[in-house]
Amino acid sequence: MLIKSTRPAARSGRFTIARSALGPCLLAASLAGALSVSSVHAQSMSSQQMSYDIAAGTLDQVLNQFAARGGFLLAIDASLTAGKTSLGLKGAYTPEQGLRQILQGSGLDAVADGRGYRLRAAPGLSTRSHEELEAVRVQAQRESATGPANGLLATRSATATKSDEAIMDTPASVAVVTQQQIESLATRTVGEALRYVPGVAVEFDGVDSRFDTMSLRGFNADSVAWLDGVKLAGGSGAGNNWTLPQIDPFMLERIEVLKGPASVVYGQVVPGGMVNMVSKRPTQTDQRNIELTLGAPRQLRGSVDLGGALGQDGVSAWRLLALSSDTESRTDHVKRKRQLLAPSVTLPLGENGEIVLMGSVQRDRGGSDYMWLPAYGTLFDNPNGKIPLSRFIGEPHFDRYDRDQDMAGWAAVYDINDNWTLRQNLRVQRIKSVMESVTSDMYSFDDPSEGGWDWRTLERYANRGTGTSRSLGVDTQSEWRWNLGEAEHTVLLGLDYYRGTFDARRQTASVGPEGSGGLLDLYEPEYGATIGPFTTLSEVSNRRHQTGVYLQDQVSWGNWRLVAGLRQDWSSVSGTSRRRAGEDDLGQSDKATTGRLGALYRFESGWAPYISYATSFEPVAGVTAEGVAFRPMKGKQTEVGVKYQPDGANWMASAAVFDLRQTNRLTDDPIHGFPDQVQTGELRSRGLELALTGRLSPNWSLIGSYSYLNTKVLSSEIPEEQGKPALYTPRHQAALWVDYTFTGRTALAGTVMGLGIRHVGSSHGGDIDVAGGGYASLRIPAHTVADFRMATQLGWISPELKNSELSLNVTNIADKQYVNGCGSLWTCGWGLGRQVSLTFSGRF
């Protein structure tokens, strides 16, 4: 069937066809149409030379880059290229000449089939050369900001500018965790996936598998995340912080981190940055993938990923993701189950557009492994020894956390002409949660003798929280591409709107007989205490609105890349908050103007130094003791950095230094005291970040990162905070993951072995009273853990398993026991212990 291209492929030397989400689909259609016109065209193509500069790598990577550059289809039997490498290609070649050069010594050759080329075993060199080989036809296309990346390295992103741009052209710090990295490290949460990203601290407040806890450049960001460029909602206010979403990494194509203020394109956001998750989308390539995982602590997990083309129009496609898991935590009596279903479909919008309809239904059931333990027995010595890593301080018959999470939306793009593109991203979301837990009362061990602690008996109380969060987010963009002399402009005008509602109730109750304190022996626990009756602590019902208009211009002028942006936001909150002390009306409106400037210079050698300045804002609900409404907190950052990627290299390095400040922070009122607050607080964060990611050779791949972070409270009305670092912000963090792929004609060909080391430096915890008056800061010690992976292809067992893999992953190999969070003497948490998983993955 002839598929007609609706747009020219280039303008003024720019591949404008790939500048929107529709670009890859239209490019694929253009290539398919061009290659199916006639054999005459194929003959013409085969005689045309093009210049290539492709680095050495695995054979399938080199072939994919060669076909993408040459613009032709290539049919491949995946078992033929498995375990093989190529020295790459440099120089001018026709497709046939280039294929011969790349395949030299591989035992393969390529034959024209009328629409492109097909790989086969060279006659006489393989016992399978005369067998009928099932070919898998693939279309070569450039990487896009919403599609799969090539291995560990992503080269394009839309998170920083909302336009599909090369990361090397972006004057900002952008880190991308690809799908291969998610799979290689066997990550089960977004937080785990970010362990190797510089400037990001995760799991710093004890282990909590229900939520993704993280901070960016010293600023807490665990309740602020975006999915496909649309903000995800979570409940907050009056101490209610459990109605938060959690996106399973299985749903994601990539996880992207933009560091530094991002308000100019995303509105209210913490100054440290934001996390944007990119969903898996339908593709024209058939998807028939299955995964089964067994693990310890007990882990049963199964998933399927199905999809493919719908019809012959080159655009319509479908995809269905399904997952079921049943796991046990390292904490006793804690089990969790998850069921997830995420369908999506891509449909054409006329001849020049498409819309991707996406939805997901997720059900989480089980308990919580977030345990508040005393510092004595975790951070400090206890005469009874260390508190076991598996200790559960709740009640098995009572504790639970259930979450219903539903989402639906679309991502639409329409090309009015070659230079004007319209886009819209929309998502509606509903989260309903129930939390019941028994926890420590945070004050003391039981004191039966009234002469001192017994160092083992903990007093407890019960919590119950219910919450419902609903939100609508929509972002509409208009992008123009035009030239002014030698300067190429990409102008983005956008309007986004967010509306969220949140209703919650929090209750508390005694544990055990009245007056008993719900005592639990931390070293010989006995469970079965009665719970109740409950009394209400707080109820909150609020409505939040935000509207933002933004304008951005990206300029490409010779080797210069410039970006400038300006945004105006209007936000409001309304509702009620009821506590034991009374009822407060929530009613506040704010507005803010934010901006960004950045400049980058691309040297021919691959170096790209840049400088940027950006601002941010966050609304703050509430009033001072005098009844004056709080102003938004403001952030500003200056950043200088450099990126490096030699021509043709499959790796990228970056370095950045920054000075980041946040003003209008809340602090205790020096006149009226707590709970009244004023906005005289200021926090400064300065740092250095280094990163290196990609394939260094056909055998070696690497993920390396280092960050130095110096945070300081510059202004606070709380004396013990003044001049101190921010909580849970280690000054030094370093991580290194290296894997080796065996190649050649050996029994281990295709096997991958990986080893990772993660170091988290010491950090500042909460403040505690000391004898004689005053305060002292808890110091959370540094820790270093190692991870391991081994994966092997199973084609050697049977030809039917040629696209199957068995992988073994171990995190925290030595099962190191360490404290990763301590907010007070009674709220410390253990880090994650050793986890082992064995995964079978197959493509059929």
TrEMBL record:
It is found in: Cell outer membrane. It is a multi-pass membrane protein. The keyword Signal applies. Pfam families: Plug, STN, TonB_dep_Rec_b-barrel. One of its GO terms (molecular function) is siderophore uptake transmembrane transporter activity. Keywords: Cell outer membrane, Ion transport, Iron, Iron transport, Membrane, Receptor, Signal, TonB box, Transmembrane, Transmembrane beta strand, Transport. Residues 1-42 form the signal peptide. This is Secretin/TonB short N-terminal domain-containing protein. It comes from Alcaligenes faecalis.
